[in-house]
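User: tokens in, sequence out, please.
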């Protein structure tokens, strides 16, 4: 979770429809896996690592983010979750890069450097914001460099020496509404200056529950097979044999 959005959403961030739905999609993508260690790059609050620990996907999580004030170790559901400013924490079975690559100038170099010690059976989960034409004040606020198509994510994965296993889109049911809204706002900003800000904010319980239910339906309708459109592009990758 981005530290800027964590600050906006406050203590309810873990129950917010966006992060709840994205976490459930991650669990569906990793369904059936049981591993020792997850390495969560750019982890922020460590929300996704906590979700994996709760679901029993891993026994230990290492969350890495240069924004941390200091290294520390916590327990979550009886398991160790380590917070570190550097990624030098030993081998990992699954590497999470949830909304990370869009923040750096050289995405290929970061991915290659982070995954250079992976074994062929180890997995990398990548999510990024989708489609450059959806660029908005949300991206500027979060200091993004770019948005991606599914094929562009796969190209970065291959250039980093990895092999794509699955790729596609999520948050597709909101895509038409978000596209119209962002294109309108982009046109509007040509005439009226507006402050860059996150598109996410606290929601009432009813709206939050409806949006979670909507994306539960989306997962049942075909995730992770959607290769058409969505607000998030994802790729599951591994090192070649």
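Assistant: Sequence out:
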């Amino acid at each position: 979770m981005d530290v800027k959005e964590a600050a906006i959403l406050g203590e309810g961030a873990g129950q917010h429809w966006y992060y709840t739905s994205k976490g459930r999609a991650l669990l569906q993508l990793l369904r059936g896996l049981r591993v020792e260690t997850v390495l969560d790059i750019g982890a922020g609050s460590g929300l996704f690592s906590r979700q994996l620990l709760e679901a029993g996907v891993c026994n230990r999580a290492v969350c890495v983010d240069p924004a941390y004030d200091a290294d520390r170790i916590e327990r979550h559901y009886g398991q160790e979750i380590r917070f570190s400013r550097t990624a030098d924490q030993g081998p990992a079975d699954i590497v999470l890069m949830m909304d990370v690559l869009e923040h750096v100038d050289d995405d290929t170099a970061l991915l290659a450097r982070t995954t250079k010690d992976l074994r062929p059976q180890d997995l990398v989960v990548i999510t990024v914001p989708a489609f450059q034409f959806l660029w908005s004040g949300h991206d500027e606020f979060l200091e993004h460099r770019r948005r991606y198509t599914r094929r562009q994510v796969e190209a970065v994965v291959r250039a980093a020496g990895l092999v794509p296993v699955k790729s596609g889109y999520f948050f597709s049911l909101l895509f038409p509404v978000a596209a119209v809204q962002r294109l309108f706002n982009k046109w509007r900003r040509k005439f009226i200056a507006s402050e860059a800000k996150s598109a996410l904010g606290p929601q009432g319980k009813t709206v939050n529950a409806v949006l979670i239910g909507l994306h539960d339906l989306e997962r049942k309708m075909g995730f992770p097979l959607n290769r058409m459109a969505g607000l998030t592009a994802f790729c599951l990758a591994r090192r070649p044999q």
